[in-house]
Write a structure and sequence with these properties.
Layout (H helix, E strand, L loop, with lengths): L2 E2 L32 H19 L4 H12 L9 E3 L2 E6 L8 E5 L1 H4 L7 E5 H8 L3 E8 L6 E8 L5 E7 L4 E2 L5 E6 L1 E7 L2 E6 L14 E6 L8 E5 L6 E8 L5 E11 L2 E8 L2 E4 L6 E7 L2 E6 L3 E3 L2 E3 L4 E5 H6 L7 E4 L5 E8 L4 E7 L2 E10 L2 E6 L7 E7 L6 E6 L6 E5 L6 E5 L9 E9 L5 E9 L10 E4 L15 H7 L4 E5 L9 H5 L7 H16 L8 E6 L1 H12 L6 E5 L18 H4 L5 H8 L3 H4 L10 E5 L8 H12 L5 E5 L10 H21 L8
Parallel strand pairs: 1-14, 35-36, 35-37, 37-38, 38-39, 39-40
Antiparallel strand pairs: 2-3, 3-4, 4-5, 6-7, 7-8, 8-9, 8-10, 11-12, 12-13, 13-14, 15-16, 16-17, 17-18, 19-20, 20-23, 21-22, 23-24, 25-26, 26-27, 27-28, 29-30, 30-31, 31-32, 33-34, 34-36
Organism: Erythrobacter fulvus
Protein name: Prolyl oligopeptidase family serine peptidase
Keywords: Hydrolase, Protease, Serine protease
């Protein structure tokens, strides 16, 4: 029987609102058809013009070769995941451009040249089936994890198909589970003959954000159309679905479900006594995992319950058995709360402990948590100071865990611990550029409202502060995602080693200082993010690090919107702007790709009050006649089904119509992250750095894009 959750949110305003452009106001709406003949013809002509300008540069071939050598390097660290039958790695190189899923043993992995067994060859599969398959991961049945659902996308889209695969035989299962209609969402194993599927089952099961909102239990040997629906959200949700609450042994303790009522807010449910019971937790809180017989929750807002208040960003525990008996009445206990300028990042649960990575004033730490003698205790894992730390892999069955340690100039190092000894170096990435003569500094800019905005600059030592250094400024500033110091790799080789400076800004809207750093710069306050980025640019000029003639900016997705707002609001401060796979037309973003899912971050253009917030900065509408823009380079991917190439296309088309210089390039595959193989990635890198060199290093005066 289907149990439908009660709808708790009002339906979105679907009435057309004056000011939201339609075809009569926007002459370039036809570019929103991703693969129409007219749009693809326009793309081909734009690509031809841009490639002619950049590939003819005598430095292009060298830059592409340098980038490709890094991406194809056989001595880069092969990062792995733990499974009972070995350590698994997905690997792409010159011989395997689409990649191979392979495994080895820990003993072999410790050596300089591990012996790998190929489990699945994506290149061979793509060739045999005539598809541009891109491997998008797998979901495997615990505890053995040999029965898996392999996710594949055609050309790099987010949408995938799913096929059952047996890692012990290294074969797709004949007559096994197959979902061959591409969709967002996934499937979880209930047992070896049963799946919990949360995917598209037709147009009436997708939200306006184009994500699934129903879930079914599918039995082996039956048709998916006949599978029992067990949960249904609402079409106005961002997404919705059911899942399984498992511990590290694979034991299922409950069925849960959620409704994403906005990108940042969810309602959670648990199956209790034959019905879905709504969990009494904040909409910005969520289950975090099971550790030492306790269910943990994380919250992004202050949570007051039972006479106590848990601060935002806390970890909170309830006894698992008590919670199963009384989900909304179980006693809650504080596990961890952040200190000043602290925030938790990732977490991982091993056989006997919880490990959490923290940022402490944008410096990494890792804490280990255990429940001992009736109380939660923690200790800091001994890893290098003043570095960016992350958990690379952890075992569900044992306490084996791996960490990465890196910095802008320090190649990534992989540490390993079996749970009894302190982490020790297991592998180190080779140096891909020469850091000699380079240094890293951290500074603060003052934003428009007085807030101090930190940023890092990687620059030549003792550089003359006369504004002559070509400088690339980048950032993100959205969705509570932090941008942290990390080894520069190809950027170090193609830019910093050649005399450029690199700047990473930590704007509000990101996650560098916890939930409030994000929440203070969303929706009606989103302009604060753009102000922060501009303030960093101004500070770089004020300190003499660079000048408008030599300053360029770069960002992708939300970061592409960040770049778009900068170059339309302060074109006088720049001479280059790389707008990658961007959001750009913010008055129609809810209608393009999966834009409606991000209304929680930006607001809804259909609502007049909220449209007014967005009109103040939407880059597409801010491109106007009579302003000289810094010949931006916009690029996108035809296969991007997330932000959609229409944003970048329309930005370029409007610049062209106004006679403004610009460049445009569109990768015909690659999805939201750009190139799907190393050759494509190297090409994109070379195109961008040639553009930056031409704009910021070569000419004493701003260049024309024509």
């Amino acid at each position: 029987m289907t149990i439908t959750a009660t709808t708790g949110a009002a339906a979105a305003n679907e009435t057309p609102v004056p000011g939201v452009p339609g075809p009569e106001q926007d002459p370039f709406i036809w570019l929103e058809e991703a693969r129409s003949p007219e749009a693809l013809d326009w793309v081909a002509k734009e690509n031809e013009r841009t490639l002619a300008a950049f590939e003819a540069d005598p430095r292009y071939a060298q830059l592409k070769a340098e980038a490709l050598a890094i991406f194809d390097s056989n001595d880069r660290i092969p990062f792995v995941s733990f499974r009972p039958d070995g350590l698994y790695n997905f690997w792409q190189d010159k011989a395997n451009p689409k990649g191979v899923l392979r495994r080895t043993t820990l003993e072999s992995y410790r050596t300089d040249s591990p012996e790998w067994e190929v489990v699945l060859d994506i290149d061979a599969l793509a060739k045999a089936e005539g598809k541009e398959w891109v491997y998008q991961g797998s979901s495997c049945l615990p505890p053995a994890r040999t029965k898996c659902l392999i996710a594949l996308s055609d050309g790099g889209e987010d949408a995938t198909i799913l096929r059952e695969f047996d890692t012990s035989t290294r074969q797709f299962v004949e007559g096994g589970f197959v979902l061959d209609s591409k969709s967002q969402g996934g499937a979880s194993w209930i047992d070896e003959d049963t799946l919990l599927v949360s995917r598209s089952f037709g147009e009436d099961t997708l939200t306006e954000s184009e994500y699934p909102f129903t879930s079914r239990v599918w039995k082996r040997g039956t048709a998916i159309e006949d599978a029992e629906e067990i949960f249904r959200g609402d079409p106005t949700d961002v997404s919705a679905g059911a899942s399984l609450l498992r511990d590290n042994t694979g034991t299922i303790h409950a069925r849960t479900a959620y409704r994403g009522i906005s990108f940042h807010e969810r309602l959670f449910y648990v199956w209790k006594d034959g019905e879905w019971l709504k969990m009494d937790i904040p909409t910005k809180a969520a289950p975090y995992g099971i550790v030492d017989g306790h269910l943990l929750f994380s919250t992004d807002v202050d949570w007051t319950v039972d006479g106590q208040t848990f601060p935002a960003d806390s970890l909170i525990a309830v006894d698992l058995e008590e919670w199963k008996a009384n989900p909304n009445g179980a006693k809650k206990t504080l596990v961890w709360a952040p200190g000043e300028r602290q925030t938790k990042q990732g977490g991982s649960i091993t056989g006997n402990a919880l490990f959490v990575t923290l940022l402490d004033n944008v410096v990494g730490k890792v804490l280990q948590f255990n429940f001992e003698n009736g109380a939660w205790v923690s200790k800091q894992v001994p890893l290098p100071d003043n570095a960016t730390l992350s958990i690379a892999a952890s075992s569900d069955e044992t306490d084996q865990i791996m960490y990465t340690v890196s910095g802008f100039l320090e190649p990534t190092t992989l540490y390993y611990s079996d749970g009894t000894d302190a982490p020790a170096v297991l592998k180190t990435s080779p140096a891909y550029f020469d850091p000699e003569g380079m240094e890293v500094e951290q500074h603060e800019a003052t934003s428009k409202d007085g807030t101090k905005i930190p940023y890092f600059i990687v620059k030549p030592k003792d550089m003359t502060l006369d504004g002559s250094t070509a400088t690339l400024l980048t950032g993100y500033g959205g969705f509570q995602v932090p941008r942290l110091p990390g080894y520069l790799g190809s950027t170090g080789k193609l830019w910093v080693e050649k005399g450029g400076a690199y700047v990473l800004a930590n704007m509000r809207g990101g996650g560098e200082f916890g939930p409030m750093w994000h929440q203070t710069a969303i929706r009606e306050n989103k302009q604060r993010t753009w102000d922060d980025f501009i303030a960093v640019g101004e500070d770089l000029v004020k300190r003499g690090f660079t000048s408008p003639q030599h300053l360029g900016i770069q960002g992708g997705s939300q970061g592409g919107l960040l770049v778009g707002t900068f170059f339309t609001q302060r074109p006088d401060l720049l001479n280059a702007a790389i707008v990658q796979i961007p959001l750009f037309d913010m008055l129609r973003y809810h209608l393009i790709g999966r834009g409606a899912s991000w209304i929680g971050e930006y607001g809804d253009p259909r609502i007049p009050e909220q449209r007014a917030w967005i009109e103040g900065y939407s880059p597409y509408q801010k491109i106007v006649e009579g302003v000289d823009y810094p010949a931006p380079f916009l690029w996108a991917s035809t296969a991007d089904d997330r932000t959609h190439p229409a944003h970048a296309r329309k930005g370029a088309a409007k610049l062209k119509a106004l006679g403004q210089p610009y460049y445009y390039f569109e990768d015909t595959t690659g999805g939201h992250s750009g190139g799907v193989d190393n050759e494509q990635r190297a090409k994109l890198q070379a195109l961008q750095f040639i553009y930056l060199m031409q704009r910021l290093m070569d000419a004493p005066e701003p260049l024309s894009g024509e």
